[in-house]
Amino acid sequence: MKNLIRPAQLIPVLLLLALAVLPPIAIGLDDNFWVAFFARVLVYAIAASALNIALGFGGLVSLGHALFIGIGMYSVSLPAYYGVSSGWIHLGICVLVCAVVGGLTGLISLRTSGIAFIMITLAFAQMGYFVIVSLKQYGGDDGMSIATASEFLGLQLNTPLSVYYCAWGLLVALTYWVMRLRSSPFGMALRAGRQNARRVMSVGLALQRYQLAAYTISAIFCGMAGMLLANLNAYASPSSMAWTVSGELIVMIVLGGLGSVFGPFLGAMAFLGVEELLKAATEHWMAVFGLAILGVAMLGKTGLTGWLEKLAKKERSA
Question: Are 86 and 156 in contact (CB under 8 A)?
Answer without folding.
Answer: no
